[in-house]
Amino acid sequence: MKSYITTPIYYVNGSPHIGHAFTSVMADILKRNRQALGCDVMLSTGVDEHGQKNQEAAAELGMGYQEFLDMRGKEFRSVFDLVGISYDYFVRTSREGHKQAVAGMEQTIFDKDLIVKKNYTGTYCKGCEEFKKESDLTEDGQCPLHPTMQVEQTEETNYFLKMEPFRERLLQHIADNPDFVQPEAFRNELKQMLAEPLEDLCISRPKSRVTLGVDLPFDPDFVTYVWFDALTNYLTNIDWPEDGYQSWWAECEHLIGKDILKPHGVYWPIMLMAAGLPLPKKLSVHSHWVGAGGVKMSKSIGNVVDPIEVVEKLGVDALRWYLARHMRADSDSQISVELITQTYNSELGNKIGNLLSRVAKFSNKNFGGKVPAPGPLSAEDEALRKSVVEAASGFSRWIDLQDIPARTQAIVTLAEEMNEYIDKQAPWTLFKSEDTRERCQTVIYVTLDCLRVIMEALQQVIPGSADKALAMLNAPAAPRPWTPVLDRLEGNGDLGEIESLFPRVQ
Ligand SMILES: [Zn+2]
């Protein structure tokens, strides 16, 4: 089975921030989950290199476009590498093949008489790079997404895609495919957007204003609207229109933030319908990150969380873990370096890492660097092992974006249970007497083997640390497709080198 996961392609007018890192880390977790299930997975992420905002950002830095785009492309790529995104394809919309395909799609739609040229006067938001209706604006007449940017009155001749002929069909598609937009709150929001007749979508920008873009194939005085160009990446990444893209496209899932629901939920499906192409399988929508206390992140407040800084201070898995565990499905989630540090110390450090290093060191010291062979299992051992299989099996099933926090929470709850188990069994006391030595071996074996199962599950979330832990346990390679199987740690097998997995950070 195939799975094609996409992140949005990010505007390069600014440096990569936590929001970019977040969506791409979630996409990476989904990829690792589906690979563990035995799927053939393709993950694309990358950058949107066109449009007025990028053009102006290059000008502000006094750089030529190509030089600017190369610099930013490298910057984004290096952040995604830093946070461990195992992307298969890094999108750059300046690629020649992409541009040709965008023009091809426009020509197809134009030939069906679905694109019209007309004069338009309206309010334009440069941030969104689109015309706004009165009802889209705030009380003081600004774009709600870009309140500091000042909308402009613009009069222009442009090309427009007819949207209204497709509205009913799109609503029907949403009704027929309840999984098309997840979670439900955003499906309802999309239905709301489609409740009223749709205005034509402006799909061009005159070259007098914007040059950084794809030329319209039927009028060289215009470039393509940046969203039309960008959205098409989801097809061009899999070589559309060349044959072979179909099996990937049929399994395509877009991960998006709630701020870009309209382009992905309205524009894109209608573009596809207009071009005679099937819709993607799913839109998985997430909310945003705000600072501690629910305050919006801003440089002036000084509460901006920089992914590079977090990785340097706490390591990549502290960041990945926090994003996975504390994302909320349909409301904004809070983040700060302090919150990440706390979670790292309390969950990864105290509950999981300490348990592993405590028991592994004990075993190393008292059983000659080996995992002891177990004796007969007690009811308590069996109960713990059952809990481990239950919690870990959340990672041997398909994970959707909104499932990630609960599946990781189950591992934390399990780690608490394991700590209680080891405190109650007290293997260090059992070891002291010859009579209870075998029981001690069993407790140690059960704990280490359960930790192995947990770490195999966590390979999907914090792969670097999980791999390190599995190397300490000298565990055999995890089976594919993966399921939580007990007793794969060899009794009397050698342990690897023991190190601190999540060293405490103040
Ligand atoms: Zn805007």
Describe this structure in words.
There is one protein chain. This protein is of the alpha/beta class. The protein folds into 2 domains: 2-286, Rossmann fold (3-Layer(aba) Sandwich), CATH 3.40.50; 309-472, Isoleucyl-tRNA Synthetase, Domain 1. It is 46% helix and 15% strand. It has 18 helices and 15 strands. The chain has helices at 18-36, 52-60, 65-82, 96-111, 167-176, 184-193, 226-231, 233-236, 246-249, 261-275, 307-314, 316-326, 337-366, 379-392, 404-425, 427-430, 437-458, 463-472, and strands at 2-11, 40-48, 89-92, 115-125, 130-132, 152-161, 181-182, 201-202, 204-206, 215-216, 219-224, 252-257, 282-286, 289-290, 333-334. The strands form 4 sheets. A 6-stranded parallel β-sheet has the order 3-2-1-12-13-7, sandwiched between helices. The chain has a 4-stranded antiparallel β-sheet with strand order 5-4-6-8. A hairpin with a 2-residue loop joins strand 10 (215-216) and strand 11 (219-224). Helix 11 (307-314) packs across helix 12 and helix 14 (379-392) runs parallel beside helix 17. The two termini are 45 Å apart. The model has no long low-confidence stretch (mean pLDDT 96). Residues 125, 127-128, 143, 145-146 line the site of zinc ion.
